[in-house]
Each structure stands twice: as structure tokens, then as C-alpha cells.
């Protein structure tokens, strides 16, 4: 078993070392799909533990010998984000278990974010609702992109937020797919495609984002709406869309 532990959390080493043994028995599940995420209480701290499924044989070879696993990327990327002043759960540890000399289950352990809202709630929002937070989010995303941070899975479940002391705060999660470098207008505007919401919210989002980054609002809006339509048309061929898709 391979363990990478954030030195700031040396006091949790015993808990980290026991995680593979206790994962199925303790805590409560907040997400279960291909992977499973649980919240466990250690002393006064709520801790997130994400267990990644065992990869298919080809990916087991790739992640064992040639490429960083998703969990390892999730453990190493937060430092780059936190160092630039953006919020993401502080990483505690990465665990990689082995079977037959190759990666088996892996775990990413982090501090649990207290933010209670996700972007799913914008799915069927009407005009007059959520405009304030959407504008704040557009400005936040512009700052994120100007800092050369691009979350490649910028989807509703991966953006947490709350209003704290009168200001909206945002927190990125599930950050194993990231890109660090210049973010062009096209890349930046296309980054919104996976979000839930009606057309009027995307127009507002595009206009505020363009204003913050000094882009042409009409050109940015066109890119946002085209990328949104392309993504969701492809998505609904195989999946049910859980909100009214007005395209």
C-alpha cells in the first residue's frame, strides 16, 4: 500500500492508514456511482474520503506504470489552486492499494467543505432568481481563468458555494481533471457548457464573464450558447436530462 500524507495532517496518520479497512463500515455516503464518497468524523473534523473504482485492465497498466492516477492528481492539484488564492478542500492524503503488482482501489482524503449549495439548483431557475450569484460566479470564473486555472469537469456537482458575510464564496471539488496555462476566450466560454440552467442565465453569465475578462460580450455569448447546445444535444442522446432544456 502506498500512502502520501500532507505533513500538515501528520496527526491523522493512524486514521489514514486504517482507511481501506474502515471505509465500508464507517461514515455516511454522500455520493455513489462509479466512485464513492463518504464523510467520516475524526475528532472535531469532518473528512471526505473518495474511493476510486478499480480501473479496467488497460487503465490499471497505464496508472501503475505510465500516468498519475485520478486520486493522485486530486491530491497534488489542490496546492496549485490554493496557492493562487482559490478555494478547494485541503488535501490530507492519497492511498493506493495494489493487487497483482498493479493499482487496485485508490483513495483521496480531504477536509470536508462546509458549503451547502451546488449548481444543480439552477436547472429550472426563472428570471429574477439567482441573478446575483450567477454574476458573482461569472466574475469568479473569470478570475480563475485569468489565473491560468481551467477545471475540465466544470459541472454542477463540482462547484460548491455559500454566501458568507454578504459575499458569495465558491469551492472547486473533484479536481483530478485540470489544465494550468493560458485560457483563451474560446476555451473559457466553452467551459460553461456542462452547467445546468436556462438560456437567460447563460446569457447573463456570458455577459458578466466577458466584461470581467475584457472580451466582446456578443462573441462570448455566442460561444457559450453554441457550446452548451452541442454538449447537451450529445448528452441527451444517451441520458435523461433532469431539467428543462430550452434549446
From TrEMBL:
It holds the Pfam family Kdo. Coiled coil: none annotated. It comes from the Bacteria. This is Tyrosine protein kinase. It comes from Bacteroides sedimenti.
Amino acid at each position: 500500500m502506498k500512502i502520501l500524507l500532507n505533513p500538515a495532517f501528520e496527526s491523522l496518520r493512524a486514521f489514514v492508514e486504517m482507511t481501506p479497512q474502515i471505509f465500508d463500515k464507517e461514515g455516511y455516503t454522500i455520493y455513489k456511482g462509479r466512485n464513492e464518497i463518504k464523510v467520516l468524523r475524526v475528532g472535531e473534523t469532518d473528512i471526505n474520503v473518495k474511493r476510486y473504482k478499480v480501473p479496467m485492465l488497460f487503465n490499471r497498466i497505464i496508472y501503475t506504470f505510465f500516468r498519475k492516477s485520478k486520486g493522485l492528481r486530486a491530491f497534488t492539484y489542490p496546492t496549485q489552486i490554493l496557492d493562487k488564492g482559490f478555494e478547494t478542500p485541503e488535501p490530507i492524503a492519497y492511498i493506493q492499494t495494489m493487487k497483482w503488482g498493479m493499482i487496485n482501489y485508490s483513495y483521496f482524503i480531504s477536509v470536508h467543505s462546509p458549503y451547502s449549495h451546488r449548481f444543480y439548483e439552477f436547472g429550472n431557475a426563472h428570471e429574477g432568481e439567482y441573478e446575483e450569484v450567477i454574476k458573482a460566479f461569472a466574475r469568479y470564473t473569470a478570475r480563475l481563468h485569468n489565473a491560468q486555472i481551467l477545471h475540465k469537469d466544470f459541472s454542477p456537482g463540482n462547484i460548491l458555494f455559500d454566501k458568507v458575510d454578504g459575499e458569495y464564496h465558491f469551492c472547486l471539488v473533484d479536481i483530478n481533471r485540470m489544465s494550468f496555462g493560458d485560457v483563451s476566450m474560446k476555451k473559457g466560454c466553452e467551459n460553461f457548457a456542462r452547467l445546468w440552467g436556462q438560456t437567460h442565465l447563460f446569457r447573463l453569465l456570458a455577459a458578466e464573464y466577458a466584461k470581467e475578462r475584457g472580451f466582446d460580450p456578443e462573441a462570448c455569448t455566442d460561444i457559450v450558447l453554441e457550446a452548451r447546445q452541442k454538449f447537451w444535444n450529445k448528452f441527451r442522446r444517451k441520458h435523461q436530462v433532469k431539467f428543462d432544456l430550452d434549446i
